[in-house]
Amino acid sequence: MDADKRRQLRDAFGAFMTGVTVVTTNDRHGNPIGFTANSFSSVSLDPALLLVSIDKRSANFDNFTGCKHFAINILAEQQKETSNIFAQKIEDRFALINWRKAASGVPLIDDSSAWFDCAMHQVIDAGDHAILIGQVGEFESCGTAGLGYYRGAYFTPYQNAESLISSPNVVVSALIEFDGQALMVNKDGGYSLPSRHVSKSSVSETLALLINDLHIAASPGFVYSIYEDRHKNQQHIVFLCAQPTGSDLSPPPVHQAQWYNLNNLSELPIADSALKSLMNRFVRENAVGNYALYYGDDCQGSIKHFALQASEEAI
Question: What's an example of a GO molecular-function annotation for this chain (predicted)?
Answer without folding.
Answer: riboflavin reductase (NADPH) activity
